[in-house]
């Protein structure tokens, strides 16, 4: 599947961000716009490397060395997406290979993002123009706020970048964000999705473990893991946040399905995003890495959420899960609105299958993963790559003609690892960023590669 996705991308969209497999051209409507940033190359490279696809890997590495730069990109890029896909992908390849080119490129990208942090609070804006350094927030985000899942999902990459370059600046930027979030008043212990970077105050009280919130929580747990479990502040913030979420947002449906509802102005929506399906793996990982009074509860909820996400898949005609699904009188683990019925090759459910397989070795997780492989082959494979679909409840769904870069970075990687030996990227040596780029765990992994000393040019990077 990876070879099919890659070879068609190479044939029809090389250097573009993503492939449109039906029309056999580059996808310029992607989050990275029309610039030729090779998002699929940088995002998919570590998957090629893990799979031993050496020829393809070398093509990708060569393109990055010769072509990849943000120097002349005058477009508004998402700080968050650029971090998790580009910086994350490059940092993983540096850890895997020790090839200094990857470290340099990662640092160049990070330096292009730094102007976005120049706000009164240090909470970065969502969008940056790499050429001009101008940054701003999305017009639709509550009172021009920054978004929790975006500014809260920089910690792993920026911390690791400081360690391998010897430049403390990157870690300082994300520590500032951490301190604000630690000290701010949290309604019922919960984190709203919007924070104003000028005032440091919350925007509208909308909480979610799905879109707009998701990976912030993931990075609290993973920052603690990445630090060799030394970053106690991160683990404490994670545990506190999860207990508040369990109390106010985790619910059980009439037929016993565990789900995490969105919460808007103190009203539960009884809706869960596909994006929140990562939480099954996160709760289980939290339970597995620390024994406490919460361990059993966390594991039970992790298994429950993963099961619910599986139900959202098998209750559709295609056996692929919808973008969001609801619980109530009219539905259980099913999408009701047409705007929620699509599937864009997302990885979150198979991510939780992978984590739970590694932690429990319960065969059902591999069986469920294989079911997804068969569904992808049946409904998403095209002659020239893979495509998302517009309605998971139709027997023959219409395709959306986009092969997302995260399909190669995440979905195929997690499926491959689900069927691999535990010795391939063991969970006590690697932590996966939210784009499935594995980063080494400090003190537990010989590939951590810290800088030997603070480099002399550290001062002028800011």
TrEMBL record:
It is a single-pass type II membrane protein. Involved in the maturation of Asn-linked oligosaccharides. Progressively trim alpha-1,2-linked mannose residues from Man(9)GlcNAc(2) to produce Man(5)GlcNAc(2). It catalyses: N(4)-(alpha-D-Man-(1->2)-alpha-D-Man-(1->2)-alpha-D-Man-(1->3)-[alpha-D-Man-(1->3)-[alpha-D-Man-(1->2)-alpha-D-Man-(1->6)]-alpha-D-Man-(1->6)]-beta-D-Man-(1->4)-beta-D-GlcNAc-(1->4)-beta-D-GlcNAc)-L-asparaginyl-[protein] (N-glucan mannose isomer 8A1,2,3B1,3) + 3 H2O = N(4)-(alpha-D-Man-(1->3)-[alpha-D-Man-(1->3)-[alpha-D-Man-(1->6)]-alpha-D-Man-(1->6)]-beta-D-Man-(1->4)-beta-D-GlcNAc-(1->4)-beta-D-GlcNAc)-L-asparaginyl-[protein] (N-glucan mannose isomer 5A1,2) + 3 beta-D-mannose; N(4)-(alpha-D-Man-(1->2)-alpha-D-Man-(1->2)-alpha-D-Man-(1->3)-[alpha-D-Man-(1->2)-alpha-D-Man-(1->3)-[alpha-D-Man-(1->2)-alpha-D-Man-(1->6)]-alpha-D-Man-(1->6)]-beta-D-Man-(1->4)-beta-D-GlcNAc-(1->4)-beta-D-GlcNAc)-L-asparaginyl-[protein] (N-glucan mannose isomer 9A1,2,3B1,2,3) + 4 H2O = N(4)-(alpha-D-Man-(1->3)-[alpha-D-Man-(1->3)-[alpha-D-Man-(1->6)]-alpha-D-Man-(1->6)]-beta-D-Man-(1->4)-beta-D-GlcNAc-(1->4)-beta-D-GlcNAc)-L-asparaginyl-[protein] (N-glucan mannose isomer 5A1,2) + 4 beta-D-mannose. One of its GO terms (cellular component) is Golgi membrane. Keywords: Calcium, Disulfide bond, Glycosidase, Hydrolase, Membrane, Metal-binding, Signal-anchor, Transmembrane. Pfam families: Glyco_hydro_47. Its EC number is 3.2.1.-. This is alpha-1,2-Mannosidase. GO terms for biological process: carbohydrate metabolic process. It comes from Glossina austeni (Savannah tsetse fly). The keyword Hydrolase applies. InterPro entries: 6hp_glycosidase-like_sf, Glyco_hydro_47, Glycosyl_Hydrolase_47, Seven-hairpin_glycosidases. Disulfide bonds join 277-309. It is found in: Endomembrane system. Pathway: Protein modification; protein glycosylation. Gene3D superfamilies: 1.50.10.10. Belongs to the glycosyl hydrolase 47 family.
């Amino acid at each position: 599947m990876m070879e099919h996705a890659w070879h068609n991308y190479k044939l029809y969209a090389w250097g573009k961000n993503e492939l449109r497999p039906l029309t056999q051209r580059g996808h310029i409507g992607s989050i990275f716009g029309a610039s030729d940033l090779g998002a699929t190359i940088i995002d998919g490279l570590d998957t090629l490397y893990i799979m031993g696809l050496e020829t393809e890997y070398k093509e990708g590495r060569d393109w990055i060395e010769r072509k990849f730069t943000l120097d002349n990109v005058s477009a508004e890029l998402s700080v968050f997406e650029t971090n998790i896909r580009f910086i994350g992908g490059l940092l993983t390849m540096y850890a895997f290979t020790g090839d200094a080119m990857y470290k340099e490129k990662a640092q160049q990208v990070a330096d292009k993002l730094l102007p976005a942090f120049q706000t009164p609070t240090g909470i970065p804006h969502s969008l940056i123009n790499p050429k001009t350094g101008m940054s701003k927030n999305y017009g639709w985000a509550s009172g021009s706020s920054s978004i929790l899942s975006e500014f809260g999902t920089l910690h792993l990459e920026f911390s690791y970048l400081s360690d391998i370059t010897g430049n403390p600046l990157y870690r300082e930027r994300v520590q500032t964000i951490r301190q604000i979030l630690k000290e701010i008043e949290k309604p019922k212990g919960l984190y709203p999705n919007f924070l104003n970077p000028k005032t440091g105050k919350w925007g509208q009280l909308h909480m979610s473990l799905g879109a707009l919130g998701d990976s912030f929580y993931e990075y609290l747990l993973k920052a603690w893991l990445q630090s060799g479990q030394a970053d106690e502040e991160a683990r404490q913030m994670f545990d506190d946040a999860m207990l508040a979420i369990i109390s106010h947002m985790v619910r059980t449906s009439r037929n016993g399905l565990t789900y995490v509802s969105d919460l808007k102005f103190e009203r539960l929506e009884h809706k869960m995003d596909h994006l929140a399906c990562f939480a099954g793996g996160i709760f289980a990982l939290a339970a597995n890495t620390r024994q406490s009074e919460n361990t059993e509860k966390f594991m039970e909820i992790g298994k429950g959420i993963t099961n619910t996400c599986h139900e959202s898949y098998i209750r559709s005609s295609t056996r692929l899960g919808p973008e969001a699904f609801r619980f109530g009188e009219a539905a259980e683990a099913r999408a009701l609105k047409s705007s929620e019925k699509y599937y864009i090759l997302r990885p979150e459910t198979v991510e939780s299958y992978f984590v739970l397989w590694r932690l429990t070795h319960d065969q059902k997780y591999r069986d469920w993963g294989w079911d997804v492989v068969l569904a992808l082959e049946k409904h998403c494979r095209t002659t020239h790559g893979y495509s998302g679909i517009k309605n998971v409840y139709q027997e023959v769904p219409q395709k959306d003609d986009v092969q997302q870069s995260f399909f190669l970075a995440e979905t195929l990687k997690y499926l491959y690892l689900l069927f691999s030996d535990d010795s391939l990227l063991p969970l006590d040596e690697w932590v996966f960023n939210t784009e499935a780029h594995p980063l080494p765990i400090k003190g537990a992994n010989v590939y951590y590669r810290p800088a030997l000393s603070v480099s002399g040019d550290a001062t002028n990077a800011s």
